[in-house]
Write a structure and sequence with these properties.
Glutathione S-transferase Yfyf (Class Pi), Chain A, domain 2, Rossmann fold, 9% strand
């Protein structure tokens, strides 16, 4: 099985360990990832400034993937939500479909609505399956306590995201537990991490992150676990900034799900970028059986 991998722009610069760990995990599971140079940004930075420019950027990616006859796999909740939303609008709004389609036709691209957009978690849960994930493991985790953070755009809006219940999701928890961790029940599981307002109101963004970290700690978590580029940047880089600015804050390490699963699949820590996180997650190695 091959996918066109949609990597998310910031990851290539600020979160290379997500790219490396994703490549390694997918290879271990026998999944081919195809990098398509013609892909552009999903349009996320444009969404609140020029909505049609955002749509054009997102839909163009769908058309490029269709040219290669490959469905899209993305590791970022924002990219997933934006691509899914654009596809939904193109299917539902004939006037938008005609306008955006007409612009893309100028470069020989066609939107036919045949490309599926898959999030990494969606693919792992629904296609690979929990049993296969367990069977593929060569090492075991000794129940580290983890607070799973879903992120907004993989859950909402429900009718577009189509991944799990926005109010009481469980699929990511099950994936974490399939890797041998203990998923903690915590009050702020489905609340925003604050990334959406960072750069506009940094204090508010840090307040939101601090609240999430405090709630996770109250639940007994030893790590956060995420599957979104922006969420990981918030819980790793911004949380480190938070610790520097507010000295009474004790950081809570945030591990990418591909890093967590990769360890169980026998992939070495260097390939997974375990030591590349701003807030050290090397403590997870102490839980390896």
């Amino acid at each position: 099985m091959n996918f066109a991998i949609f990597r998310c722009c910031p990851a290539s610069v600020l979160l290379k360990q997500y790219e490396k760990s994703t490549d390694a995990v997918m290879a271990a599971l026998g999944v081919g990832l195809v990098d398509i140079k013609e892909f552009n940004c999903c349009g996320h930075p444009l969404k609140n400034y020029d909505y049609k420019a955002y749509l054009l950027a997102s839909v163009r990616n769908l058309c490029v993937a269709e040219k290669y006859n490959l469905n899209i796999l993305t590791v970022c909740n924002c990219c997933y939500g934006n691509l899914k939303n654009a596809d939904h609008i193109m299917r539902e709004d004939a006037s938008i479909r005609e306008e955006i389609g007409g612009i893309l036709n100028r470069e020989g691209l066609r939107y036919n609505g045949v490309i599926k957009i898959r999030h990494l978690l969606d693919f792992l849960y629904n296609d690979v399956g929990l049993d296969q994930i367990r069977q593929k493991q060569v090492k075991t985790l000794n129940k580290p306590k983890i607070a799973v953070h879903y992120g907004c755009h993989i859950l909402r809006p429900r009718e577009i995201a189509e991944f799990d219940s926005p109010e009481e999701p469980s699929k990511f928890d099950q994936l974490v537990e399939a890797a041998g961790a203990q998923s903690m029940d915590w009050n702020a599981k489905v609340k925003c991490c604050g990334a959406s307002v960072f750069g506009v109101n940094d204090n508010l963004a840090m307040d939101m992150t601090e609240m999430k970290v405090n709630e996770a700690r109250k639940a007994g978590a030893e790590f956060l676990c995420v599957s979104c580029v922006y969420c990981q940047l918030q819980f790793d880089r911004v949380q480190k900034m938070l610790g520097d600015k507010r000295k009474n804050i004790k950081p809570l390490p945030s591990i990418l799900y591909t890093q967590l699963l990769g360890l169980c699949l026998g992939i070495d820590a260097e390939t997974l970028g375990i030591h590349q996180n701003q807030i050290s997650i090397s403590g997870i190695l102490d839980f390896m059986g």
